[in-house]
FdhF/YdeP family oxidoreductase
Amino acid sequence: MARKAPTTDIDEAKTRVSSRKKVAVGVPAVVHALEIAYDQMGVARSAQTLLRVNQKDGFDCPGCAWPEADHRHIAEFCENGAKAVAEEATVRRVGPEFFAEHSLADLAGHDDWWLGQQGRLTHPMILDEGATHYRPISWDDALHEIADALRAVQPDEAVFYTSGRTSNEAAFLYQLLVRGLGTNNLPDCSNMCHESSGSALTQTLGIGKGTVSLEDVWNADLLIVAGQNPGTNHPRMLTALEKAKSRGATVIAVNPLPEAGLVRFENPQTVKGVILGGTKIADQFLQIRLGGDQALFQAIGKHLLEAEQTRGDVLDHEFIAAHTSGFEEYRQAMADAPWSEFVAATGLPLQTLRRVGEAVRTSPATIVCWAMGLTQHKHAVATLRDVVNVLLLQGNIGRPGAGVCPVRGHSNVQGDRTMGIYEKPSESFLAALDREFAFHAPRAHGYDTVEAIKAMRDGTVRVFMAMGGNFVSATPDTTVTEAALRSTDLTIQVSTKLNRSHVVVGRRAIILPTLGRTDRDVRGGVEQKVTVEDSMSAVHSSRGRLAPPTHDMLSEVAILARLCALTFDGDADAPQADWTALETDYARIRSHIEAVVPGFGGFEGKIDKGRTFVLPNGPRDDRAFATATGKAMFTVNPLEYPRIPRGRLLLQTLRSHDQYNTTIYGKDDRYRGIHGGRRVVLVNAHDIGALGFAEGEVVDLVSEWQAPDGATEERRAEEFRIVAYDTPRGNAAAYYPETNVLVPLESVADVSGTPTSKSVVVRLERRAA
Ligand SMILES: Nc1nc2c(c(=O)[nH]1)N[C@H]1C(S)=C(S)[C@@H](COP(=O)(O)OP(=O)(O)OC[C@H]3O[C@@H](n4cnc5c(=O)[nH]c(N)nc54)[C@H](O)[C@@H]3O)O[C@H]1N2
Ligand SMILES: Nc1nc2c(c(=O)[nH]1)N[C@H]1C(S)=C(S)[C@@H](COP(=O)(O)OP(=O)(O)OC[C@H]3O[C@@H](n4cnc5c(=O)[nH]c(N)nc54)[C@H](O)[C@@H]3O)O[C@H]1N2
Ligand SMILES: [Mo]
């Protein structure tokens, strides 16, 4: 039997701390995943659902974007994939009675865990101006309200957010709706996630995506995994790393924290994993200081260049001459860079930097994998350009077992971008859209996530719509962002589960419930499928099998097709299409995609019978680089790293093992030894004493930010328990979203605009007795 939703919030006083785990996954992980699944779904539904994850006739795991191998295990999912599935396939329901029982103020008083645990949304709901409760509204009325509101404002006075679970088909219709309305205001979760990767890779390699396949990972000789916690966030990646290691690969983990899984991994799908104690994944663990990665990669580059001078056999001169630009400037810049700065920035001894340099020098094929630890810093784009520099020196792009591997987060965040969810679309994309739909798409760039918040704050945006996600909890500067959203006329959330963005709203608010990946989607009497793109540019279909929470629920596609019809029908200047036909036959949307987006020729046939196809990728396929110079670009990036003021700590905000972004599955971070609570701050034991505190003490975290006008701004997050943890001195860690209140809206990465969620200067403050 599934259990009822919780009635109380997390009791932080019950937080317990145990020793850190050195081993990831294995049998305890399976047990924990099944506990959560049984809680949400009961035993029979759990079995029925979990066996369909990532199978050729099943649905794409709504967890992460790590690709599936072509030969799949029966259970091709992981502990955290199972939790993601259970959250969606839960039998708990949030319907009209729930909203009648709980006022907005009551809901707002609960924590994110409580909100998310209540169950699936089932009915369209509206909050009238001044009302204390949401009330039910019919689908027709809700969609008319939205269409009217969108037509009543200037195009740029509306903002349209996307989270990365939205299918290709829905994303394509969404961007068409938005551009048909006349704006490119399409911020997405990517702006807070891998935007820095996209910015760096587009400039230097001519494509904003990774250049490796799963086979490349298996066949690499050296894999550097930097700024990523795969044991929690991409557990299936560990299987790939294990396979690479069994073929002789070396893995170097670069992280301020010794994350479980990087250190040792037990594969629950093999006997060896269960019985023999697993594989040691990382051959070297570099405990780097927060934000020290640019220095690390410059150090590797400098080492390779110096070795070339003495040995003459290190660089791939042919590749450099034929396929790159800017080598001489980069060589000179590295010759001038002092080793002492690299040591200071990374906190790693010179001989360690040399040793990594040697590992790279002697590797015939190297891949660098990364995630949020590299992208969410002020100098993230510069850091990633320096990653590219290192790979270019040895021709490690566009050949087997080598390349860049940004490991994406949301299961279709990459596909959404391919479908045009982007505030700065290319002219070629817009021109193709114009041709296909006989209209003129707007050319002016729109707002990204941070710019959208500023525009709401400043009163220039009146309507906010979100296709999934939890905008108010995921974004920085919670106090500012909440006020910004509250100042709008209307907020619209298309969602599967209740979250804070349903309770921090504009003067009026509408919730549209929708189908998720696990739900059967029948339109026009026919079972529909959707498609997604994984982290390695492979596209495949996904089809849910469970009966949806209610019989009249609309899919994201259906909601968008109806909004397009309501907004565009009869308007000769608007996009022209048969919207009703699109709603009842998603293949017709795919045929529009085929006409607009390069690489989708023969789309329908390529995804038939569970088949997967890989999108074209110039660097990987042909060593073709669509950059400003027509070549892969070496770049010169002045070294940056965070300086931590005396008596302060640099805080990174990260995920616990029991959460999916703002969705809190449970109260434990098992691998890090935190149980029953989330308001903890992990600090080096020596810093705790040096700052005059004691382990277990409860403190406020106060962020200190030098505003551009020179003033010091303070932001406060209350009541965090100090936990002594193995992190470099001066560095601390705490969970997001609780700490988003500390991240200043102005503090973003250069070029990409990504909030600097891994680099917040804080002081600990004793609470008044
Ligand atoms: N179960 C689960 N799976 C998920 C998610 C989830 O919340 N839960 N989220 C999904 C999403 S959207 C994303 S983007 C990914 C996120 O996947 P990750 O990027 O792995 O997520 P974070 O928890 O932010 O972890 C950041 C890691 O980088 C390290 N780090 C922080 N700063 C630095 C630094 O300056 N240098 C280096 N070298 N390391 C650093 C941290 O110690 C931590 O190990 O996971 C996806 N998958
Ligand atoms: N401080 C700090 N802030 C961060 C980060 C960090 O590391 N530190 N990480 C950033 C990153 S990497 C990301 S990606 C963002 C995440 O930002 P978001 O993507 O906005 O947040 P999620 O928590 O993934 O969104 C969860 C909600 O999505 C809805 N949902 C789930 N599945 C579906 C679906 O299929 N359809 C629809 N319509 N709705 C669905 C549910 O209602 C659920 O409550 O947060 C960012 N914010
Ligand atoms: Mo993400």
Summary: The two ends are 45 Å apart (CA to CA). The chain has three domains: 126-189+412-601, 195-406, 649-766. The pocket of MGD (ligand 2) is lined by residues 116, 163-165, 189, 192-193, 372, 376, 409-410, 467-471, 474, 494-497, 499, 514, 516, 556, 653-654, 661-663, 736, 739-740, 743, 757 (CB under 6 Å). The first strand starts at residue 16 and ends at 17.
